[in-house]
Structures are given as C-alpha cells and as structure tokens.
Design a protein that fits this description.
It contains 13 helices and 13 strands. By secondary structure, the chain is of the alpha+beta class. It folds into 2 domains: 4-72 and 92-143 and 316-404, no CATH class; 163-309, Phosphorylase Kinase, domain 1 (2-Layer Sandwich), CATH 3.30.200. The strands form 4 sheets. The protein has a 6-stranded antiparallel beta sheet with strand order 7-8-9-10-12-11. A 3-stranded antiparallel beta sheet has the order 3-2-13. α2 packs across α13 (369-404). The longest helix has 36 residues, at 369-404.
Length: 405
C-alpha cells in the first residue's frame, strides 16, 4: 500500500490547489477533524481488513459521523434534526454506515478526553437504539415537538434564527445595494469572467428549472469554503433578490459533486445516475424525512453541482458540546441511532436496497454488534497514528501541492 502522504496527495490532487492547504490546516486541528477529512482512508482500510459480518444492503450517507447530524428547514417549512450530508451516499452494507459512525464516537470522545468506559457505553447505546428502531420497522423523525434535551434546545434556537440574522452575517451594503461580504474568512472573491458566467448560469437555472425559486434575480456571487472533507471542491454562494417583494432575499449554495469515496470498494453494482449530483440528491430525498428546501442539481462548465438553500436554521451538531454533559450525551447518541435506522427503513426496498423485513431481521440479531465495536475501537487507534504522522508531514504535503499547481 502507498504511504500516507501518497494516499492523501492522490486523493486531494483533483481539488483546487490553492484550497488544499486550507483543507490540510483544518485537518490538523485535532484527530476528529482529521477523521472527517479522510473518509477515503477509512474505506480503503475497511476494504483491506477482515470483513465485517454480513449485513443487508441499504442506501447510506457513507460519511456518517457525529457532526453529520444537524438541523435544517425542510421543503415543508418545518425544522428537523436529521442526517444532513450525503456527498458520499451510495448503496452499501449497513454495517459500513454503522462502523463509520461508531468509529467517529470513539475518535471524538478520545479527542475530548472522555473516559473509555463512557465511550463504550455510548457506542453500545447507539447500536442498541439503531437495532431497536430497525426491529420496530417504523421510521421516525425529530422536530421541535418531539425533540428532547439538547436536541430540543438546538432546534428551538435554530427555528428562532431568521433570515435577517443570516444576511447580516453574510452580506454588506454598498451604495444601498446588498452584496455578499468578503470579510467572512470563508468567502473569497471571484475573477470577473467567472463571476459573470456564474451569475448568468444561476439566473438561467432560476428562470427555467422547476426546482428554482420564482421571481428572483442574482445580485452577487462569491467562492465559499465549508466543512472539512469538501474543502477544495468548487463551491459558490449566491445572493438572490426578489423581483416581486421588497427587501426579500435568498441565499443559494452551489457545490461541486465528486464521486463517492466508497466507490472503489463497493461490493454491489450501483444505479446508473445521470451524474454525481443526481446521486446525492436522489439518495438524500430517499433517506431524509423531508428534504432540504430548494434541493436541486445543475451542470456548470461540464461539472455536476448540488444546489440548495443556505438557511438560517441549517447547522451541524458540534461534538464538543457533549463534553461533561452525560445526560444530554445519552439523549443525542440515542437519537442518532434512531435516525440512522429510520433513514434506512425509509428507503428500504428501493432499487436494490434490502426490504424492510430484512432490516427488521438484522435489527433483531445482535450477533453483529461486537464485531462493529471491536473494529471501531481498533481503527480509532489507527486514526490517531495517521493524525500524528499527518501533523509531521503536513507542511511537506502543502509544499508539494503548491509546486504541482
């Protein structure tokens, strides 16, 4: 197998060279951030390891970890807490989804200095909640009326945040005209030609797409950074203004979609999607109780892009908020197990995924759980080794990337 440096360089080579250093800087923050940014390493290693017990096939998000749960406003205008990142989504054994999430608990809790005994209890809780929900055979959802503990507070706070607050953070006023701000460290100026082309592209999408908002005009566009694993892909933020309602604005995020990191290791044939953006949106629509508002796709300069509204309520759960709060930790992990199972039940029996009966039977069989736990704790140690090695070679990697560009 190639060295860690070679594996990282190979995977990140297609990304925007001037943004890869920022990705490496983000990954160096701690071992959990490194884990988030190296989904490709996880599945390459999983494919080379002793196989996990057989499990049903399901539509999975692929990169399930603690911070890929969060709040968002659905297309039914209600606020939900659910899985919220589907860039890596594919049809795969459910055990892959479980071992990725359980490993994230191990790595995150180790990063926070949480006792291993507590980590073990939380891992067992997650898998128990997952199995219980599968066995019941009924998908559930979490919104403010059904949420408990810190998730309830999280949703209520998110729902109370309005578009004015979001616009205040993201925009500036110049000569009585609202524009996207470049003062935000995640916002970057585009060259004049690209900016003009992007504005024309988005305006055409608005005017002709059935998914687009009606009666809006593109006013501003910038390059946007977000997340960890997706740093380096082409990603743009658009400010739209209503042509019918005074002082009404929308923010749209348009992100390039790359092939799933799981693709080289999948044991089963995948659907022939129109493109990678179609894969992401279709699987997201299957797995979420209510898809995010204005979810759609587009092609720009021959590349597939995911389009969705940037909302004041959309936010990811921060794993650091769990430290020293055992009661809320218990509730959140329990909720995550239920939501993982619900997403799989919701898409059960669709185009190659196992039937709900098969998922129920898997939930009722506890024989697979210890293998998932053992691999996760073992791989947590591997992540820490990778992270320490990465911190030692990060500067060399950044220099190689700059010279290659």
């Amino acid at each position: 197998m190639d060295t860690l440096a070679e594996r990282l360089q190979k995977f990140n080579e297609p990304l925007l060279p001037d943004k890869v250093k920022r990705k490496y800087d983000a990954m160096a923050e701690n071992a959990f951030r490194f884990f988030r940014g190296t989904c490709h390493l996880f599945y390459e290693d999983l494919a080379a390891a002793a196989p996990l017990p057989l499990s049903p096939l399901a539509w999975i998000c692929g990169d399930l970890h603690l911070e890929n749960f969060g709040s968002y406003r659905g297309d039914d205008h209600l606020v939900y807490f659910d899985l919220n990142d589907f860039d890596e989504a594919v049809l795969a054994p459910v055990s892959w989804e479980l071992v990725r999430l359980v490993t994230s608990i191990c790595v995150a809790f180790d990063t926070l200095g949480i006792d291993k005994e507590i980590t073990q209890r939380m891992v067992t809780l997650y898998l128990g909640s997952y199995a219980k929900t599968l066995t019941a055979g009924k998908a559930r959802a979490i919104e403010p009326r059904t949420a408990k503990g810190i998730v309830c507070d999280f949703l209520k706070s998110a729902a109370a945040t309005g578009y004015k607050e979001l616009l205040k953070k993201r925009t500036i006023s110049k000569k009585k005209t609202l524009l996207l701000s470049l003062e935000d460290e995640r916002h970057f100026k585009l060259d004049k030609i690209l900016r003009k082309e992007l504005k024309a592209h988005m305006q055409n999408w608005i005017n002709h797409s059935n998914d687009g908002p009606y009666h809006y005009q593109v006013k501003s566009v910038i390059f946007r950074l977000a997340g960890t694993g997706s740093i380096g892909v082409q990603r743009y933020l658009f400010l739209l203004k209503s042509t019918h309602t005074k002082n009404e604005y929308l923010l749209l995020d348009m992100k390039e979609c790359r092939p799933s990191s799981l693709s080289p290791y999948l044991p089963t044939q995948q659907l022939n999607w129109d493109n990678e953006a179609a894969r992401v949106t279709k699987i997201q629509q299957r797995m979420q109780y209510a898809p995010v508002a204005l979810l759609s796709t587009s092609e720009f300069r021959g590349r597939p892009f995911l389009i969705q509204e940037l909302q004041p309520v959309k936010d990811s759960f921060k794993f650091k908020s769990l430290k020293k709060d055992y009661r809320n930790m218990y509730q959140v992990i329990d909720d995550m197990g239920m939501l993982t199972a619900s997403a799989q039940l919701r898409s059960g029996g669709m185009q190659g995924s196992s039937t709900i009966d098969d998922l129920i039977a898997f939930g009722a069989d506890c024989g697979w759980q210890q293998a998932v736990i053992d691999y996760a704790f073992s791989y947590c140690e591997q992540v820490k080794k990778y992270y320490h090695e990465f911190c030692n070679i990060k500067n060399k990697l950044s220099m190689k990337n700059q010279s290659a560009s």
